[in-house]
Amino acid sequence: MTAAYFGTQLGLLALLASQSVGTGEQIAAVSASSDTRNLTVQPRTPEQIEQSRASARIYRANLDRSYDRLQKGDLVSARAYALEVGKADYEANLILALVALGRGDYSETIELLGKIHPDHFNPLGAMATARTYLAVGRFEDARKLWQWYDDPEVREFPSQSDFPPLDTQNGLAARVLSAYGFEVENYPHLSLPALLEAGKISPKSAMVALGVARNLKKLGRGNEALPFLAIARVFGAEDRQSEAEKLLGGFPSAERAAALDGARANPLRAYQP
What we know:
Strand content: under 5%
Radius of gyration: 24 Å
CATH topology of the domain at 50-116: Serine Threonine Protein Phosphatase 5, Tetratricopeptide repeat
Number of helices: 13
Largest sheet: none
């Protein structure tokens, strides 16, 4: 991946580079002035080994708890456990960024995501950053991230025919919002709002509608999924029609028929309060 797409990463890269040079010079100076022939490696004591293992267990437990709370929509606890791990940890830092984005704190989100080293920058981080850029009006920065994301070697996002043209702000927003929604699909409290926003822009998108329906089911609100399943059944390609048809079978026939008629007449209504 190229750092050119990640404007927020460039300052970090320069800092890391300067720190690496400084560290190397210090090591060289110590090596030149020290006689290392008499140095011996001291084996760790059993107590030190156990202490190290205990620290690793605590680290993993806090990280697992943070993921669990994020999945349940408890952003306060997810943040607290991630802070126990520390911002220097890549996974904890990403969780903190997702929490900040979920709260609408875009400045903190950008700051946290900007600290992620390019070696750890992944599709989720890219779309979280792009969604944040959209929220603060940095459309060109969001577009660069989308161009990196929509690549066969990364994700190559499917089903864009239902979206407005990419060269429009709405077209970019629909793609970024839906991509972010699917990247965080394990966290329905974060995924659902993004997909609902995407659906308001592209109400005929069967992909987005099915994503909304799945999130509602995960949140125990499956009874609210009917209009979105109807959209997927009416406007989707064959595979999405089949998936929607199976899920529609759980609703009474009269309700299904009314929902299908409503989807044909005005799919946007499903996304309106």
